[in-house]
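User: Predict the complex with iron/sulfur cluster.
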Amino acid sequence: MGIKRAVKKRMRKATWSFFYFVVRMFPKMGYGKPIIGPTLKRMVKLDPSGRTQTYVLNLNKEVHDRTQNVVLPIDMMKRLVRDSKYRAIMHGCLCRTAHSCRDYPVDHACIFIGGSAKAIVDRRMGFEATVDEALAHIDRGAELGLIGQAMWVEVEKHLFGFRSGDGTAHWLEICFCCPCCCSAFKLIRATDQADIKERFRSIGWKAEVKGEACNACGLCVKKCPVGAISLDNDRISIDEKVCLGCGFCAAACKRAAITLQLRTPLKGTVQDYFTDGGLGVDI
Ligand code: SF4
Ligand code: SF4
Ligand code: SF4
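Assistant: Here is the predicted structure with iron/sulfur cluster placed in the model:
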C-alpha cells in the first residue's frame, strides 16, 4: 500500500473514532450546568437559536389503531424518499457502533436525503442509493423493529460538511434507531432541560394505557427509550409531554393494555413538520 493511501486510511479511521467519541459524549454533556451549560448548548446548536428538530415516525404497523383511517408513518417516510433528489445510506449506525449494540445490527444505518447528502458519499461514509434501495432499507428497518425518525440536526452541517447558509435545509436524515443506543433517546433520558427534550417530537401519536387491562408488570417502563412511563403504587402513568409515540411500550405489553392514539392531525408530508426557526426544506 502506498504511503498516500495508508495516510488516508488512517485519517478515515481517526475520523470515525472522532464521530464515535462525539456520539458517546453528546448525551452526557452538562447542558444544565451554570455558565458552561449554555455554552455547550450553543456549540451543539441546542440553544434557543439552534433549529435542530426531530420527529418519530413509528414503523411498527401493528400498533396502529386500524379503526382510524390515517396514513401510516412508514408511508410518509417512503414518500419523503421518493420526493428526494439524492439519497446516501451510511455504512454503519454511529450510535450502535459507538455503544457496541448487542440487540440490533450495526449495519442498518441512517439514510441522508437531499443534495447535501452527496457529502456523505464524497467522504466515503456511505454510498449513493437508488429510490428502490432506500425504500427496501426502510422496510428492513421496520422488520428489525427499529424506530423511525426524521431528523434535522444543525450541528451535522459542521460535522459532515453539508451545504448551508441560505437558511434552507438541503438535507434530512432518516434514522432507524434502537431504544438502547440511540444518542437522541439517551439525551432525552439524561437531560433535565425542557427546551432540549422539546426538540424531539411525535408526529401526532401518543401512548395511552387502559388501567383495567394492566397488571403492573413494568415491562413497558423498561422498554420506553425516553423514560416517559412510570410505575407508582401499581399504577402506570405516561408523561405525554415526553412520549414520542414510538410504540415500543405497546409492542412490549403482553396484555394489550397500551395503545397509540393519534392526538394531533398529521401534516401532509414529513417536510411540513420542519418549520422551527423558519427552516425550509429543499431535498
Ligand atoms: S440516530 Fe438512529 S440510525 Fe442514526 S446513528 Fe443514531 S441510532 Fe443510528
Ligand atoms: S407492560 Fe402492559 S401490563 Fe405491564 S405494566 Fe406496562 S401496560 Fe401494564
Ligand atoms: S411511552 Fe411508549 S410510545 Fe411513548 S415514548 Fe415511551 S415507549 Fe414510546
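The pocket of iron/sulfur cluster (ligand 1) is lined by residues 93-96, 109-110, 175-177, 181-184 (CB under 6 Å).
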